[in-house]
Amino acid sequence: MTSPSAPEPAPVPQPAPAAVPPPGCPAHAGGALRLYGPEHAADPKATFAALRAQGSVAPVEIAPGVDANLVLGYQSALEVLRSPERFSKDPRNWRALADGSVPADSPVVPMMMYRPNALWTDGEAHARYRGVITDSLGQVDPNALRGYVEESADILIDRIGARGTADLLGEYGALLPLLVFNRMFGCPADIGDKLVVGMSGIFDADADSEKANQILTEGLAELVALKRREPGADVTSWMMAHPAQLGDEEMLHQLALLMGAGTEPEQNLICNALLLLLSDDRFAGDLAGGSLPVDEALDEVLWADPPLANYAVHYALQDTEVDGVELVSGRPILVSFTAANTDPALSGERRGGNRAHLSWSAGPHTCPAKSPARLIAAVAVEKLLDRIPDIELDCEVGQLEWRQGPFHRALVALPVVYPPITVTAPAAADETPGAIAWKTETAPPSPGPTTPAPSSSTPQGGISTVREPVSVNAAPRRWWNFLAGSRRGR
Ligand code: HEM
Fold it and tell me: Which CATH number fits domain 32-487: 3.40.50.1360, 1.20.1250.20, 2.60.40.10, 1.10.630.10?
């Protein structure tokens, strides 16, 4: 197994400043508010409200014994994100990890440790990795991507359609990005399963994180070896053929980043938007206003409940101040995208159609995949509501459980019920996620590592399921039927 690079030694640590506990707070961890655990997961807004009382930057605990500062103000967030000369992304600046006061097996370490990738580097190294990523993602044809998403969605809906009940998180939202990304990255099913198990495990930031990290690394090493032998018309092969000539270790780390970004946050954008659409009256049947409800719902999630709630970890290169709050060098600074987007100083600004939220971050490390990420989520949501129009939540919103890690806003499950639909190619009940992955393409003869990879116009492998959806449901149709119909020109 190839392990990710270990953090390099850093200078002697300085003690983190003590926080002032808000009186009577149940999530208080003895020095700073907890950004993890059941109380925070059940009501993150309460945590942010308590933290805001301390200023636009406040001390938090992100795992047992792991201290950080959290940026809550919108302007303060922009200041940190857009000042690479003052704030580094490189976790080798993290003093408490380097000196062992944060143990290497802390559950948050896999999501925060140094890896030679675009996310954790600055300056020239960052520009080189980011160039490979943006150039290769730029070769993805949006129409082909839309097709992958629709086909993936159909496969998954066929599996649950006749049943009348499903967990949209586990059976749709979590699997769809995996299918799409396996296809985009030329990843066969067995490797794809390892990647999703590994990636999902490290986002949970719990005791199994290290094991999950190993599974992820193993799967990625297998994918890199496969694509060196057999390049195809896929993002992995385009990255390998890039003039920057990334080595295997560098490829592995960019892929870990891309897979992480492409599966977990995507699943949470899809499911958080579905939850909103199924539970919030503002999104039920309001076609009269001429709005596009799926787009509005995605905007609302990206403003109010972003998939990455708190991340963009930075380190002050020298002791500095933001909005009057002292930030000691070497201590992690996280940006709360949720808190910044819901900063009371922004109140009164209209959210619908306004994309000035920070959910894709900002500055040099802003997400390079905003358009494909949004397209995937929009098509996934529209397709589901089109084929299963009369879907309902199978519990009260308040009964839904949220995962407890500090970084994401992620449901544990999204149970729904609906009148069963008829599918022409129902899936076998015992199918595993791997069994529904794409047929892999026929690989060309194995060339050397600098051989150009096939372009995005190279024909792709076929898809195993052919179906024509037939809804047997006679209940009144909801607005999303109209939406889907109008997009098909009906
Ligand atoms: C709903 C889905 C997504 C959301 C909410 C999202 C959000 C973000 C955010 C907030 C960052 C900055 C993180 C930080 O600085 O710590 C980021 C960076 C990144 N995202 Fe996305 N992302 C999504 C989907 C994707 C997809 C689909 C891909 C690629 C296939 C992708 C690739 C990346 C990469 C490579 C970076 C690092 C860029 C850099 O550091 O220069 N993201 N994303």
Answer: 1.10.630.10
